[in-house]
Amino acid sequence: MNEMNQKETQNQKFDSETFGSPMLVLHPEDATTAMLSKLYEGTGAEVITQFGTNAEIKSALNHLSRSRRLMMLGHGTPSGLIGKNAKGEMRLVVNHSHAYYLRKHGANIVAVWCYADLFARREGLHGLFSGMIISEMEEAEMLGVPTTEEELARENVKLAQRLRMLLDQGVPLHEMPARMLALDDVHSPLTTFNYKNFFYL
Prior knowledge:
2 domains; 17% strand; three-stranded antiparallel β-sheet; six-stranded mixed β-sheet; globular; Rossmann fold; alpha/beta
């Protein structure tokens, strides 16, 4: 995987007083989702990779202007986005307790983690959300989707690049699922599975 752009604030610790860049990105550090950094590299986004308390996250979300896009990326479950706290412990860094602040943000949300759509449906959120996206061989094997490590690395980078292209072009979020599906030029079991798992809610 390529390293994140050094000009980004990817190593910035969570600071609820830091606002002002055009987009806030919550992207817990994880090598297997590093390709998702392509969605914000070079944008000047405020990128948070290390997370403090629930109260700090709530404060940041509460102060986030609706005009600024919120992007949440990484691994997760239907219950939220997974990341490490200040002690290095794995936990849900975005969860039910943040739903009120996420709903206040309107439909200017892009969230890519496994079953982000189920979290959004449960919490009444709006924007572009992914379903299950296969990024590891264990996930492919569990779901019975034949692929290889090489295909996973190649095609998931392409998927992130294509989603970034549509975002850069200003394509409305409600058009993204159909546009992403049309960009699949491989139609393998892996790409068919992943490209169909984007939803506008």
